Please model this.
Amino acid sequence: MTDLGQSNFLNVQSPEFYPSQLVTPNNPYGWSAPEVWFREYGNHYSNEEPLYQHDPFSYAQPPVVPSVNSFSAVSSFYFQQLQGKFSEQTPSTPEQVPAAPKEDKSIPFVRNIINRENERPLQYEGESNSRIAAKQLLERAEDAKRANDLDLAGSYYRKALRECPWMWQGWLDYAKMEEEFGKVNRCQEILLCGLTYCPYNEPLLMRAMKLEEKIGNLTKARSLLARLEDVSPEKGWRMMLEGAELEARNGETQVARRIYKYLMTNVPNYGNVFQEACLLEERCNHIDRAITLARRGIAGNPKYGPLHITLIRLLQKSSMDHHDLGIARDAILSAVRSVPKELRWKIHLEEAQLEERAGNLELARRAYVRSVNVCPNNLVYKVWLSGAKTEMRLSPGRGGISDNPTAIKLLNRSLEDVPHRKKAQVLLDWARMEQVFQCMKSARDILTRAREENPNEWKLYLEAILLETRCHNIKEAIKLAHEALEIHVGTGRLWQVLVGLYKEIGEEAQWKTFQEAVLQVPKSGEVWCEGARILMSKGDYAEARRYLEFSLFFTPQYGDSFLEYLRLELLENGPNVDLSTLERMCCNAEPNYGALWLYCKDGPLTSAQEAFQKGRRMMTDYITSHEAHMPQAFVSCGPVERVVLPLDCLGQHDTRHLSIDDQWHHIFGYQ
Model:
């Protein structure tokens, strides 16, 4: 066997990654990759020292190498150890935080199975002996992993990979396990070792590249793509596409555009290449350019449904100023003629939502009818539910749903057609609609019924908690939160709302609740954001920054973390601080939830950049107007609390004074 410990695999010191544009007969677009890109990196493979010095197959644990993290290197957070106290001596970075141990009541049973399997010899049938043996060892490794026995699982993985090192799934599962337990350096070495045997395997390459990006080693992430030098675009386009997204996430927009241009020219038959290029232009607020790319992609891939939906939304967004939806309607007709039959219902559903946003109730109803006629039976409940929401938004009765028989019929029809495992979602939205019209008793009854039928759906408990907080029943909300956490102890959203509720009890109780939450869900960005809010209210901005960095690292889709980081920067550095890096991170993450975040979105078509800029304007205006009293005025309750104050997340305030539209936005967000 090759001595993997002496490999110099992928230890590349890169030259300037992107030289100036080079126009050659083989590169007429003036793009220095992939031809020059692969060649420049490929020249450096055999000239450097090895990346690691020990054998990954060794049973001994590797030495701990300090991890590089470009995002969190500015901070040194002291992570609370699982024994129960915050340690002030042990620095940790987010990627080294281990997952909370899973409570598995079947562990003794699993251990018995493992012990019996150890006594049985490996069976060889059909395939080659080494491959069969490796598969059986991987199964034993999974059993040990479910039993939370990391050492035993690791030994099985190593034995399996010794038997059959070309089995890429074993390398991938082994690396995932090590990363879950916070051993990022070990995970990195396992992936790189696996790539020596499976050098062109896409899942391994993708995982390794994302890991290198996560720990801040962009040079190494880029060098991984150099191995695609001899791979045709038809086989390596997915990895090249991932490389374009990597560049876009790190601010190299022009480079990403060149990669997309290369792919659109060489592999024009893949619709998702055009889809990602459109999304990049949309994030940069270049709507006209995105529309052009979408039309070009549809011309070559007329059956690719997501691209049609993207074009419809882009056309609606571009026509918002002059209120002319004719072009968008023409795009809908073209999409219906082009996409496969099983996707037509989505086009009609998008048409109905477009008409709803334009206030055209009758046209929306007709589109819903067309959607129902072609929708599969297992998905038709979504159309009924969306139709009920449209009826309540555009023709609400004074008494809420009880005064709207059409909405009631649609909701009942949705409950009849919905699969059992999705029934909770219908009841959840029904309860939310009741809350919009202040029918709190009906909403409670619906949520109570839903929890009895679906006790494993944590979102029902969360909505019940938020309902009580909106009614200022804080004690009942705390009681419900504790009941929910007895069942869903590993759900970060429930811990987050509980920490927020304990503000009404006192700061000391709130901080203790936060500490307990961190122990149970150490990788919940929502919980870390709540901790940052507590520290910001005390004026401890340095520690709050570390907490927010953890929040952004673990849960980038939680929009409130970006707004809290924005608020922190404004408080510390003033309204003229450069926030371009934070804004770019926010645009790339595209957050989709968080009460403050949804408040900053003016509609479902609002981009992440527009929401971020609106949040900055609101916070800057408030800070400027209260500059003489900062920071106390900023963190105290006042008339603008609902806008700029983070704590309570808008969900824990009286909303009865809001209009119907504001109530809908507040409770549903923009879906």
Q: What stands out?
A: The chain has five domains: 35-64+95-279, 282-375, 376-456, 461-522, 530-671. The first strand starts at residue 77 and ends at 80.
